[in-house]
Amino acid sequence: MTTLLNELIEKLKTNVKGHVVLPDDPNYDEVRQIWNARIDRRPAVIVQCTQADDVARAIAFAQENKLEISIRGGGHNVAGTAVCDNGVMIDLSMMKNVRIDAEKRRAYVEAGATLGDFDSAAQVHGLATPSGNVSETGIAGLTLGGGFGWLSRKYGMTIDNLVSAGVVTADGNKIQASETENADLFWAIRGGGGNFGVVTEFEFKLHPVGPEILAGLIAFPFSQAKQILTQYRKFVESAPDELTVWVLFCKAPPLPFLPENVHGKEVVLLPVFYVGDIAEGEKQIEPLGRFGDAYGEQIGVHPYVEWQQAFNAMLSHGARYYWKSHNLTELRDEVLDTIVNFADKLPLPQCVISLILVDGAPSRVPANATAYYHRDVKFLLNTDGRWEDVAQDEIGIQWSRAFFQATAPYASAGSYVNFMTEEEGDRVAAVYGANYDRLVQIKKRYDPDNIFHLNQNIKPQS
Ligand code: FAD
Question: Domain range spanning residue 402?
Answer without folding.
Answer: 212-419
